[in-house]
């Protein structure tokens, strides 16, 4: 591991961080990522001007991210209560319960046939227009968001925590947050946000494919697994994002749903590539997508705990194998 944590310690820290997130969820006030977003916006407004926008975007990324991650890394090297700091950082960075808390109310609004409430709730989690969205549109948007953000908010964070502890989880979430803020191909961010988008692509490449593989393995039936694998391999290359494509295609195939297709952005209807195979999404599929993300989390934790047990048996708590 990049910071010298043993595998047994990492496994228990992963479990503790996920449990904290499921029990307490996001902080209702003064969440660190909210403060980071305001800091990033302040820096962007002062650097995103005139010429050399790619270089200015690189400088902004460095200013916003590296001091925070470097400080956390140095603090994590201290022996006293370092383990607690890693767990708290993972809790701040992971967003498993947040996925549930933001998406399941959409399901409830659709069940109650409160279309206006469902539109308002969906507009909080996606960038597409929802003012005239149908119930099917909203179910599709929420299901797609759940599948994609399973990787962005949960599995990518767990992957980088295993590699580099709390500093790794923080680096990933900050990079992912900047991609969500700056990584747009529009007049304002096309050049300035290019570095943020590329860094997120690189950091997400392995986690996204591990997530896609997990969705395949956890599909309900053998035929669903075959469908998820086929959709991943055949449809993901057509999706604009190199990492969202595998995750969403395999997740849609695992659930037996037809996702992708038309969506409205800024008053313009875009025809996106198809994802998955089967029927159109319904409100109940939001819950099915949540269950897929949750069981994938359990799978990853089980693998980490099993690896930790093996390292403990053969190498002790320091996690090193001995001849």
TrEMBL record:
InterPro entries: Cobalamin_biosynth_CobD/CbiB. One of its GO terms (cellular component) is plasma membrane. Keywords: Cell membrane, Cobalamin biosynthesis, Membrane, Transmembrane, Transmembrane helix. It is a multi-pass membrane protein. The keyword Acyltransferase does not apply. Belongs to the CobD/CbiB family. This is Cobalamin biosynthesis protein CobD. It comes from Solimicrobium silvestre.
């Amino acid at each position: 591991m990049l910071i010298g944590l043993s595998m047994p310690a990492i496994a228990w820290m992963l479990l503790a961080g996920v449990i904290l997130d499921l029990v307490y969820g996001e902080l209702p006030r003064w969440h660190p990522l909210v403060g980071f977003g305001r800091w990033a916006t302040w820096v962007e407004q002062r650097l995103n001007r005139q010429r050399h926008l790619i270089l200015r975007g690189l400088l902004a990324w460095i200013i916003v991210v590296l001091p925070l991650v470097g400080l956390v890394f140095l603090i994590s090297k201290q022996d006293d209560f370092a383990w607690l700091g890693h767990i708290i950082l993972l809790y701040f960075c992971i967003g498993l319960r947040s996925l549930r808390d933001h998406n399941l109310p959409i399901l409830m609004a659709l069940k109650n046939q409160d279309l206006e409430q469902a539109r308002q709730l969906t507009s909080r989690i996606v960038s597409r227009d929802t003012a005239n969205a149908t119930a099917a549109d909203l179910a599709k948007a929420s299901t797609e968001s759940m599948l994609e953000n399973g990787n962005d908010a949960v599995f990518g964070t767990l992957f980088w925590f295993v590699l580099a502890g709390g500093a790794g989880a923080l680096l990933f979430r900050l990079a992912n947050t900047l991609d969500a803020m700056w990584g747009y191909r529009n007049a304002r961010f096309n050049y300035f946000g290019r570095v943020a988008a590329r860094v997120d692509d690189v950091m997400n490449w392995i986690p996204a494919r591990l997530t896609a593989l997990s969705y395949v393995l956890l599909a309900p039936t053998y035929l669903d697994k075959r469908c998820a694998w086929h959709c991943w391999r055949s449809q993901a290359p057509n999706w604009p994002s190199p990492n969202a494509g595998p995750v969403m295609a395999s997740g849609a195939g695992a659930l037996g749903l037809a996702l992708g297709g038309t969506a409205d952005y800024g008053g313009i209807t875009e025809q996106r590539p198809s994802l998955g195979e089967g029927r159109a999404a319904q409100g109940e599929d939001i819950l099915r997508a949540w269950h897929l993300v949750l069981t994938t989390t359990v799978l990853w934790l089980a693998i980490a705990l099993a690896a930790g047990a093996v390292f403990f048996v053969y190498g002790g708590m320091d996690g090193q194998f001995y001849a």
